[in-house]
Amino acid sequence: MASVMENFALSEQLKMRRSVSGLNYQYSLKILKKYNDLAEVGIRNLKKKSVKHDRGKEPLFNEKQLLKLTVQLKKRPPNGGIWTGPKVARWIEKVTGIEKVWNQRGWVTRKKSKYSWPKPRPKHKKGDLIAQENFQKNLPLKVKELREKYPSKKIEIWFFDEHRVGLKPIIRKVWDPVGERPTAIVQHRYEWLYVYGFVEPKTGKTLWYLIPRVNNKWLSLVYEAFGKDVELTEEKIVLLV
After folding, report:
1. Gap between the Cα atoms of 79 and 26, Å rounded
2. What is the mean pLDDT of the chain?
3. Do residues 83 and 71 lie in contact, with contact meaning Cβ atoms separated by under 8 Å?
4. Are 91 and 110 in contact (CB under 8 A)?
């Protein structure tokens, strides 16, 4: 009797709070029933747990064919280029014998094969991967050597690079009476400006210098200004990369 009264009181509370929780009253009763039957196990969140069922259409291809596609996606397409939704759809038609596979299914299948569509990270053509890996390994050793050689001095690590930004004047359209064509006085030329940037990864501190050009003279002036801004003295060593 006490259990019945407790369930009745709990159901009334669920009915009063449904506007707050956003749960339907009948759905709340189902949750209550699962809790009474299975305790905490019955109300676990199973949304991320896949459940096999016989509803819906037959799968486009089986697990073996999906694995084969995953391996194939690591190679170049038969007709060259890169894999796209239509190319995957044509590959599925060839493997499964299905007469028509929509291009969208090719896109969905790529996602099903645990592929995403990120923007590639630019990599310079002359970049040397081995040299980059060696640099990452040797830099901590270099810092350690400096600290052992100069134990009383402060060691800071800074990174430096320059970037060119430019402007080429572009003639835009303007409003003018019909039948007349406006003129614009122009001087075709390029104007450039260089940004010299320094960053200390340990602290996130950055220093920027706007320079009209890149040469030894201007670079020396930038280094001189950088040394003043970081308060470079005999008691401090800056390892500039």
Report:
1. 57
2. 80
3. no
4. no
Could you tell me which residues come within 8 angstroms of residue 104 by beta carbon, excluding any fewer than 6 positions away? Answer: 85
Spatial distance between the Cα atoms of 209 and 221, rounded to a whole number of angstroms: 10
Tell the residue number behind the tokens 């500039």, with chain if given. 240
Count each helix (H run) and each strand (E run) in the chain, helices first. Answer: 7, 4
CA–CA dist 219, 119 (Å, integer): 34
> Are the beta carbons of 165 and 191 closer than 8 angstroms?
no
Q: Alpha helices of 39-151 — where are they, by DSSP H?
A: 63-72, 85-96, 103-112, 129-149
Reported as a pLDDT band with limits 50, 70 and 90, residue 228 is very high
Q: What is the pLDDT of residues 64-98, one digit of tens each?
A: 877 888 888 788 887 777 778 888 888 888 888 88
Tokens representing 139 are: 């830099």
How deeply is 115 buried, as exposed, middle or buried, from its count of CB atoms within 10 A (0-12, 13-18, 19+)?
A: middle
**Helix, strand or coil for residue 55?**
coil
CB–CB of 34/43 below 8 Å?
Answer: yes
Q: Is 11 exposed, middle or buried (0-12, 13-18, 19+ CB in 10 A)?
A: middle
User: What pTM value is reported for the model?
Assistant: 0.46
> Could you give the CA distance from residue 52 to residue 61 in angstroms, rounded to a whole number?
16
d(CA 139, CA 161): 17
